[in-house]
């Protein structure tokens, strides 16, 4: 397979550009969230069965946030901001509709 000079220069240029961008991308990924400034922030997940995520209704701490996106977000934020004393509540109710959420 023969590579033309133009293709070689394009590929080298793109590789160089990518190598310059990667450190900035990594820095942006590790930048702290500006919304989590104070200690003791409470985050409420309110919604339908997708929010509920098959959560437990008792004090089983292994399943209190469910298995869905509320659990994933809460565990990530809790890990990233361990010293901020964040509190998470999942109040999703399976079968709720928009009008039910409005009434709550």
Walk me through the structure.
- The protein has 104 residues and is mainly alpha-helical.
- It contains 4 helices and 2 strands.
- The protein is elongated.
- The relative contact order is 0.17.
- The topology string of helices and strands comes to HEHHEH
Count of individual helical segments: 4
Amino- and carboxy-terminal Cα gap: 66 Å
Helix content: 40-55%
Number-wise, the strands total 2
What are the salient characteristics of this protein?
single chain; 104 residues; mainly alpha; two-stranded parallel ribbon; 4 helices; 45% helix; 8% strand; elongated
Question: What's the layout of helices and strands?
Answer:
Blueprint: H1 5-29, E1 42-45, H2 49-52, H3 69-80, E2 87-90, H4 98-103
Parallel strand pairs: 1-2
Summarize the structure.
The protein is mainly α.
């Amino acid at each position: 397979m023969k590579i033309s000079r133009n293709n070689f220069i394009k590929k080298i240029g793109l590789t160089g550009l990518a190598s310059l961008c990667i450190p900035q991308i990594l820095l942006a990924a590790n930048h702290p969230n500006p919304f989590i400034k104070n200690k003791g922030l409470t985050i409420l997940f309110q919604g339908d069965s997708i929010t509920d995520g098959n959560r437990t209704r008792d004090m089983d701490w292994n399943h209190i946030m469910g298995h869905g996106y509320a659990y994933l977000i809460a565990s990530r934020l809790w890990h990233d901001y361990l010293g901020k004393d964040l509190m998470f509540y999942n109040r999703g109710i399976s079968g709720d509709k928009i009008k039910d959420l409005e009434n709550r």
